[in-house]
Amino acid sequence: MEIHQIRYFLAVSDALNFTKAAAQCNVSQPALTRATQKLEEELGGLLFHRDRSPASLTELGRQMAPVLQQIWDGVTEAKERAKEFSELENAPLRLGVMNTIGPRRLVGLFRRFQECPPGVDLQLHEAGPKNFAERLLDGELEAAMLGIPDNLPERCNRLQLYEERFVVAFPPGHRFQKLNVVPMAEMDQEYYLRRTTCEHIDFLHKCLEAAGAELRIRHQSPREDWIQGMILAGMGVAFMPEFTPFLQGLSTRLVVEPEVTRHIELVTVAGRRFSPAYNAFLRLATHYDWMD
Predict the structure, then answer these.
(1) Are 12 and 55 in contact, with CB atoms under 8 Å apart?
(2) What percent of the chain has pLDDT over 90?
(3) 206 assigned to some structural domain
(4) What is the mean pLDDT of residues 248-258?
(5) Beta 181-183 vs 156-170: how paired, if at all?
(6) How many helices (H) and strands (E) does the chain have?
(7) What is the pLDDT of residues 85-105, one digit of tens each?
(8) Which residues, other chains included, contact 57 with Cβ-Cβ below 8 Å and sequence gap of 6+?
(9) How many CB atoms lie within 10 A of CB 6?
(10) Strand, helix or coil at 269?
(11) Nearest one of 174, 287, 184 to 236, comparing CA atoms
């Protein structure tokens, strides 16, 4: 059995006319007929009733149609994969990463991606949560890894990668050290170091208000290193995502009542044709073990 025989069979099955199928396959009708007859010999029976117009599938033809379609689909996919792989050499992939996403969950993914498709030029663009939608829509970025709860344009597709809870980070000797978790109400009157890039800041403040807790803001900064440094110096505490790389000496506890979770998503623009480099990255990210 040869691939072109399967292609001709599927064309006749679709058109139910040997002349039209031959034109569709860009071959002569005698050539298509001979190939079909040879396939019938190999399968041990007629695939089409030829004594009527239009032609119709025999019982054997009906049984073979989904099997041969599956074979053809597999061959087509293999060719597409091979084509994409050959086009990956020196292929750029411009990927945005929101600056509040810590690298702990991403290191293994990026390492595997660098190993799998050789030649891809992975270009990471880091920025705050407000800048990515416009850069995606303008085509400056092909995709972005975001943890934004809402406010994305309808044209954006979102694929969830993993979940991440919020914790409260505090200095050595703090009273939270004795707690297994920190209820929101326990934050009342705490000195707080405000991360101005936090995309969940409004939601966190609503949770505090509902719990009757009021913070005393002592410092604000867009820089995670400054916030952590000030925590370590005993200046206050801060809400942070649990997979953030923390400075040695800092302690954390899970925030509860309520527990606050964000979804890290791979965001793209719907309807846009993606590069082979991005398709390779998407396949890896989709099947990656995010709990590893």
Answers:
(1) yes
(2) 31
(3) yes
(4) 94
(5) unpaired
(6) 9, 12
(7) 565 555 678 888 988 888 888
(8) 13, 47, 48, 49, 65
(9) 19
(10) strand
(11) 174
The predicted structure's pLDDT at residue 277: 81
Give yes or no for a contact between 123 and 96, defined as CB atoms under 8 angstroms apart: no
List the structure tokens of 242: 């649990």
Among 86, 112, 140, residue at a domain's last position: 86
Beta bridge partners of 23: none
* Contacts (Cβ under 8 Å, ≥6 apart) of 66: none
Whether residue 173 is found in the same domain as residue 282: no
The stretch 134-148 carries a mean pLDDT of: 86
Closest listed residue to residue 16, CA positions, set 47, 56, 52, 73: 56
Q: Which stretches within the chain are classed as H helix?
A: 3-15, 18-25, 29-43, 59-86, 107-115, 132-137, 201-210, 224-232, 276-287
CATH code, domain with 278? 3.40.190.10
161 Cβ contact list (under 8 Å, min separation 6): 145, 264, 265, 266, 285, 288, 290
| pLDDT at residue number 89 | 57
The chain-wide mean pLDDT, for the chain, equals 86
* Any domain includes 221: yes
Tell me how far apart the alpha carbons of residues 240 and 250 are, in angstroms, rounded to a whole number.
12
**Alpha carbons 27 and 8: distance in angstroms, whole number:** 9
Q: What is the pLDDT of residue 77?
A: 82
The pTM (predicted TM-score) of the whole model is 0.63
pLDDT score of 148: 80
User: What phi, psi does 198 have (nearest 5°)?
Assistant: -70, 120
Structure-token pair, residue 125: 């663009």
CA distance 69 to 65: 6
